[in-house]
Specification:
The chain contains 10 helices and 11 strands. The protein has 302 residues and is α+β, with helices and mostly antiparallel strands. It folds into 2 domains: 3-54, no CATH class; 80-112 and 158-301, Jelly Rolls (Sandwich), CATH 2.60.120. A 6-stranded antiparallel sheet has the order 1-9-6-11-4-3, with no helix packed on it. Strand 7 (237-241) and strand 8 (248-252) form a beta hairpin. Helix 1 packs across helix 2, helix 1 (3-15) crosses helix 4 and helix 5 packs antiparallel against helix 9.
Length: 302
């Protein structure tokens, strides 16, 4: 393994439309290491990080084409939009891929996962981000990097209790899972007529959660496809705070649904949101960064 091998891989990624397309389905560094190995480049995560920090393209190479932009939406109106996946014929290909994406990697230790549940953390999802008590708690946890100081850096993070599927690449089903992600990207780019990339693939086992957060470091429109292993006896929920009014909005969830919302960087527009699955069913959500004019494609289908 070597840093030079990482640099060589980054160079071919820059030049290869095929690899660029594949990287749209990748969200984690372990996935990039795995992809490099598939093409004969051996390196680990620290070597990849070192190579990335010093990587430059050759002089004279054309820059990547800019994504198209559209005028900003009006300040009023809904902050979220939801649809049934079955009502969007152009996205039928996504339905076909869901069984290949809703995986439970054997590399996940169920006992260890259950042991990291914190009731006091879950209770914070019932608070408002505008509440001074919440703000003080959130600030303290952020300073502690969301870990118990007494347990050190090896302690599990407390801002989420879920499984990031893209961190589990060493299991027999990973390659099939990755291919399904590639097919999802192709389906979405055909549907929207513009570039789309994965932002996350998350498995929410029973009694799981993602605490309040804003995604402000990655602004833009998000699309999430949500599904379950069976019809939920109860319901998971998505909760957000309307930054215009500080109203708390709670949305119940159902199988094969699609949700859109926009992450903002403006301090006055931050989209605080959290997710809780209190049921005994398993929930999956697959996130994508989609073009600003995504609604144009949706409207054509309705």
């Amino acid at each position: 393994m070597s840093v030079e091998s990482s640099r060589a891989f980054l160079r071919i990624v820059y030049d290869s439309p095929e690899l660029n397309q594949q990287l749209k389905a990748v969200t984690g560094t372990q996935e990039i290491v795995r992809l490099g190995l598939r093409y004969g480049y051996t390196f680990d995560v620290p070597e990849l990080m070192e190579a990335s920090s010093s990587f430059t393209t050759a002089p004279g190479r054309a820059p990547k084409a800019a994504r198209r932009t559209v005028p900003p939406p009006p300040e009023s109106g809904p902050l979220h939009h939801e649809y049934r996946l079955d009502d969007l014929p152009g996205l039928k290909g996504m339905i076909d891929q869901l069984p290949h994406l809703k995986i439970k990697p054997p590399s996940v230790d169920p006992a260890r996962f259950s042991g990291s549940f914190r009731e006091e953390d879950l209770r914070s999802t019932s608070m408002s981000p505008a509440d001074p008590a919440f703000q003080a708690w959130h600030e303290a946890m952020t300073k502690a990097h969301w870990r118990d100081p007494a347990l050190g850096s090896s302690a599990p993070r407390r801002d989420f209790h879920l499984v990031n599927l893209d961190e589990h690449v060493d299991h027999p089903g990973y390659d099939r899972y990755l291919e399904a992600k590639h097919r999802m990207i192709r389906t979405l780019e055909e549907f929207f007529g513009s570039e789309v990339r994965f932002s996350g693939s998350l498995w929410y086992p029973p009694s799981s959660y993602r605490l309040w957060h804003t995604n402000e470091t990655q602004p833009g429109w998000r699309m999430y496809v949500i599904d379950f292993d069976e019809e939920p006896a109860g319901t998971s929920f998505f909760r957000y705070m309307d930054p215009r009014t500080e109203e708390i909005v709670t949305l119940d969830e159902r199988p094969r649904m699609v949700r859109f919302f926009k992450a903002e960087q403006d301090p006055g527009k931050l989209f605080w949101h959290c997710i809780v699955n209190p049921t005994q069913q398993h929930r999956w959500s697959f996130g994508f960064v989609v073009p600003e004019d995504w609604m144009t494609a949706i409207t054509r289908q309705m």
